Amino acid sequence: MEQNLSQYKIFYEVARAGNISKAARELYISQPAISKAIGKLEDSLHTTLFSRNSRGVQLTEEGKILFEHTCRAFGEIANGELKLKRAREFHMGHIRIGGSTTLCRYIMVSYLKNFIEQYPHVKITIESQSTTQTMDMLEQQKIDLGLVAEPKPQKNMVFLPIIEIEDIFVASPTYLENLKLREGAGADVFQTGNIMLLDQSNITRRYLDDYMCSNHIEPNNLLEVTTMDLLIEFARIGLGVGSVIKEFVKEDLDNGRLVQIKLDTPIHKRTVGFAYYSNRLSNTLSMFLNCCLPELMGMPGGAGFGCKI
């Protein structure tokens, strides 16, 4: 567009008003300034946009064509301004969050509940997949925030820890009693029992594989399961010994529904938290972090979440 936008704005207002003096009052500029701007626009377009008469101005056929397009253009600008105003007034926005099914169910839900209560008009997209896929999506800017086990440090990545988790092996009392009757009191659970682990695409499985390799644990009977929920449920019904996260079966351990298997070397705890890139911190993401993680505001990368919506 060769012309200054203000000339088109003046043309648009004059065409709407049908009168230069009325348009001058609307725009808070003088009539001579309006006439000069219209003249410049007509000269640059090599066409006459208005015909003048004693009652005011009237669009020529060429002027009607230009007015049709400027109506749409300024209408879109007005719509954009309205949407921005609504976004400010209703705290609207969009946040895309990724995490595994397990972490979303046992950790994310409570944070989302608090956020939705304060900002009910924000659009939230949840991408549920493995931690590896979540980190890939975060790097590719397909999501804004990932709920993950602590990743390796990366440039511009901020990790806000929210909980420590401990991987343990559990089984139902009935399963352990039957295993004892069948194999003897001194039998090695990992050699004689049905050991249930997440499938190898899961980062938790790889973590446990490393642990078992380091501690020379080689299960004879291995059952791979796709989700943590299934592992917990299978352990509850006595299908075998399941590798689960202790914090997610606390009630089962407290009421005796599940029993923790004692290990010679405990599995090191892991830290789970929110990961995001500091150079991609949107207003909506700032709102989420301010709402859900106020206790982390003083941590590196966590201070000064500037919420402008």
Topology, number of strands: 12
> Which strand order spans the largest sheet, edge to edge or round the barrel?
4-3-5-12-6
Name the helix and strand elements from N-terminus to C-terminus, one letter apiece.
Answer: HHHEEHEHEHEEEHHEHEHEHEEH
- In percent terms, what proportion of residues is strand? 15-25%
Which secondary-structure class do the elements indicate? alpha/beta
Spatial shape:
rod-shaped
Radius of gyration: 32 Å
Taking the sheet with the most strands, its summary is: 5 strands, mixed
Which stretches of 5+ consecutive residues score pLDDT under 50? 297-309
What is the chains' assembly state?
A: single chain
Distance separating the two termini: 32 Å
**What is the arithmetic mean of pLDDT?**
88
Helix content: 40-55%
Number of helices: 12
